[in-house]
Design a protein that fits this description.
Four copies of one chain form a homotetramer.
Chain A (H helix, E strand, L loop, with lengths): L1 E6 L3 H13 L3 E7 L3 H10 L10 H6 L5 E4 L7 H9 L4 E3 L7 H14 L4 E3 L7 H11 L6 E9 L10 H20 L3 E8 L15 E7 L4 E7 L7 E8 L2 E4 L7 E4 L2 E5 L9 H16 L9 H18 L5 E2 L11
Parallel strand pairs in A: 1-2, 1-3, 3-4, 4-5, 6-9
Antiparallel strand pairs in A: 6-10, 7-8, 7-14, 8-9, 10-11, 12-13
Chain lengths: 338, 338, 338, 338
């Protein structure tokens, strides 16, 4: 039974801890820390964990009750606990991003490379989604030939808060496409470009300018456009279409009751994103548990993936300023990640 | 240029005459008769035909200006003009039904058989519909193996008038399925059965009881259910699904703009039936013109088809009284129709 | 932590025990019995349960380590353990059927009614399937008006063994439709009828005659046809379409990668039935655990449901002999099940 | 009866003349000229026109038997006959392009403006396609709000000849998107950009480099990407998706028999482009006939549309050289075209 120490008790932490307790197997939560102690207490209570909150991140990481560390704290606080856990050989699952700055992300990669084994998995869960998995398999089976172009759509019905920023579109939404496109196309990125389309006049978040068209080019020449719209109104929808030499493969529409009514044939699109990747969250975590609990290196999205996504997202933000193409030079990929 | 004499100037007559004048080639209208003279005058005027209304059906049929007779008058008035045209060797296109009674229909078949050549085409246009054509081709190509079962749906949004009768469901709607199912399944009917389902409480036509489930069995054992609903509310829709030994083939949904809106992905279903078989009406008539104008026998739905459909529809009405299965014995099919 | 005693270690037992151990929460397996002791040992080993096989059904049921009994043994062996568990107030989850004979099923119902509380859940899992759930919700929300007619399709690619019998089509396949149609239509059955369609010439199981068209009529007049085909060749597919007064609602096609290739746009249909109801199996069992572990009566498919399904299935087999309609008189439904 | 003089007897001329003779009404062909006299004779023969080929373009245009001129000759020979017909007040329908050079196209616009009335229609038929019409109506009805982004796909299975050039992708395929996008978005173009995606290794035409991603930006900020692939292998397909502030509207897949077979649910995609716009060709021509035969100015794609499409296509070819964005300055749109 793998023993997790959990850092951070926000929304995504609840999702994962709930899965660990109720839907997965082979692991349990033995330590919890949150900068706000009552949040940790509340979670302990909710899941009836029968433990005391850890007094510090260090205490949690170093606890003899903790085999592996889960980093679910705020985006810009991941680096320190990751590096500390690494230092004492405890595997880490961190929610995205690996780090918010390219430098810190690189620092983590370097530390892991120095260890000489993969110990970190980053929570880019889409690769575990059964529909993305099947899409990937279809491509890798050669059913559509070599992939040449792609078209993605990542739409949410409305900003979750009025504080929603343009940069959140990149850091919360687009990073997911960054995390899967190179995987689907089996190649590295060459450049990124993000342009504003015609502004959405219904947008109510002052700091948000959208929709956006983001273009990823791969080293092999493939071009993939992602349309990002946080004000779709109609619903939450994630689409991905890969065009190969001999065919096209794309994610299906999510299934729902098909209705004939009022001069229409329709099926529903949810407003909430919650359910779409529920299974992916479970599969990524069970996979992490299965590897780590048996002494294997995790094979999910690696620190290198985390680094390249952060790198690309930061360059995407740079591109947004003037809409120009920004080249991506990640540096040499260490052998550890090949 | 084939010269048509037109009997009857109602709705379907307008559809056909408009096609002859505007959308088809090789034929023109040279005589028109309607029991209501002003209806004939109005049609002559509308299509700028430059002719006088015929004074009688006999005058029209016998006119030296008429090569072929089109029978578009009321359902129970088809027999006389068909037999008279046949008598002087003028090919006939008649709207469905061939005749309203089984006896009259048989009388027409006998007269044609005596002539020794096919001179009559009955307006069961669905066989000319491109989608039914493709369905038929798919079956005949063996793509789904031998057909074993079928499921049809024939839905209209609401009765066209408050006088709409239960028998109209059979005579106006179900006859179309009768006309295509044996053709699709390449076999003759063995029995028909029509049962009322749970009554539709929204129905406003006093003489109408529906919906109904009509079951056709073929001599080879195949079973085909047709669901008939004149109060669908949502729209006009015709579906046909054929289940074969190795697969299923079915009519596609009619295409329309695909919309993502209001938590739905939808496409439209029309309330009107008008557009659905527009192309079929044109193709059936052009085919009749092409055959008759070159001295060939028409190959569309024959008098025999007309007879078997009327026969079956009348037995279906008999079945409706108690929901029992009624066997169908059409008698020996004459060689002319094999 | 609810403690289960498991009777029977076949395929479906593995599905449930695996879920209990790995994917659900709140329960564990503390006793196992199989008539073949090595099957029990193997399962204990596979799931690392650290227990000894029970020596008899009685020992298992009476064990102080067992709070609730799971009956997964052969179809005709369910009655005895169910009644014995009931006698000592231990809740039971039994796989379908409740019993193979109408008499035994009724005996169980009577025993439960005498207890005065619901203690039995029968494994008709489709009601827990998210797609059926959404279909039911759509109907109950009034989105399609009162349901009037239905059309179901239950197709498997090929018989699982050469011993597959015609009666297995009813007992293995059709029972699932029996278990959901009355639930979806909110009414009881009035009659059942099963007819053979044109025989499938590709069938290789000597004792199997198919496909079949099964017709359920409800007391309110609704008619529901189910097409049963164990030799579909193309795949495993379960469809259900409910036609209401103002619209139609139906199960969606199961989602899979959409591919454009070789002059086709397609998505895949699995040959295996395994994955289709995976989630339903988990939800039904978690629901049973959640109720029983907190002292509540289970609210899933009841003994009464189990009795009516067995009753209807047996009458369906009677109908198969000559294709006639067989009326269904279940007797008075006890208050316990209202 | 409008009398047409036809210049050029190639493939598209046959399509139009066949329609005029067989499927449309209100017009006939009274003069034909082709630089290759036998081509004209052959067409006269095929359609049984009973006329002699014209001896020159001038003779045809000036003939008292000709009311209107149809220009179907080679792409770079349209300007002269258009200007000559205009000079003597005879309306012209010209196949695309209006002219191959921006200068000649502008010269024709200037000549028409000088006339002070619209006399020219250019054969960009997509605006008459019922599916594009419905898409346009959906947008103009406000059903998806203001259009912000678009995604088009224009795929053919293989180059029609080994001589197929990269520039043909722009001039034969992309011009159609150019002709509809500004119409759908109700705005003028700001820039065009065409980039090569990863090269298709299956391509066999030496002068062809593809696929390409073409980006049109509109003055209002909307961005529309068109993916162009002449080696799709799987079939001929034209897609157009318009993303508005509150929803998405897109062309439907073309309907065809839906088949369940071999572990797939599929419908067919044609290899041939022929049928896709058959109805559009008829509707554009009937519309031209209806306007011109009653003395009205044609309202289909105008000379100005023809000029802007040629302008944009030529800039697209310029962009192809280095993939850069090219601004589009059409000059002031004359009042005649507002």
């Amino acid at each position: 039974m793998l023993r997790f120490g959990v850092i951070g008790c926000g929304y995504i932490s609840h999702v994962h801890v709930n899965d660990i307790v109720n839907n997965l197997h082979g692991a349990k939560v033995t330590a919890i820390y949150d900068i706000n102690k009552s949040a940790a207490e509340q979670m302990i209570d909710e899941f009836d964990l029968g433990i005391e909150p850890s007094k510090s991140i260090d205490e949690l990481i170093n606890s003899s009750e903790v085999d592996s560390v889960l980093v679910f704290s705020k985006n810009d606080t991941h680096t320190e606990p990751i590096l500390k856990a690494l230092a004492i050989d405890k595997p880490v699952f961190t929610e995205k991003p690996l780090a918010t700055t390219t430098e810190e992300a690189k620092q983590i990669v370097d530390a892991e490379v120095k260890k000489g084994k993969r110990m970190i998995q980053v929570g880019y869960m889409r690769r575990y989604d059964p529909y993305y998995q099947e899409l990937k398999q279809t491509i890798d089976n050669g059913e559509i030939g070599t992939p040449l172009m792609g078209y993605c759509r990542h739409f949410a019905p409305a900003p979750t808060t009025n504080d929603f920023q343009t940069s959140d579109v990149i850091n919360d939404s687009f990073v997911h496409e960054i995390s899967v496109v190179s995987w689907l196309f089996n190649d590295d990125y060459k450049s990124v470009q993000v342009q504003y389309a015609r502004p959405n006049s219904t947008n109510t978040a002052a700091g948000l300018k959208e929709p956006q068209v983001a273009t990823l080019k791969l080293k092999n020449g493939a071009i993939v456009n992602t349309y990002l719209d946080i004000n779709s109104h109609y619903g939450y929808e994630v689409k991905c279409q890969v065009i190969g030499e001999t065919g096209i493969a794309e994610l299906p529409d999510m299934p729902s009751t098909r209705v004939h009514k009022d001069e229409k044939i329709y099926n529903s699109v949810p407003l909430e994103s919650g359910g779409r990747f529920e299974k992916a969250f479970q599969l990524e975590f069970q996979d992490f548990i299965d590897h780590v609990s048996t002494g294997k290196e995790p094979t999910g999205p690696s620190a290198w993936t985390g680094y390249t996504v952060t790198f690309t997202a930061n360059k995407a933000l740079e591109s947004l300023k003037n809409g120009q193409i920004v080249d991506l030079e990640f540096g040499q990929k260490p052998d550890l990640y090949k």
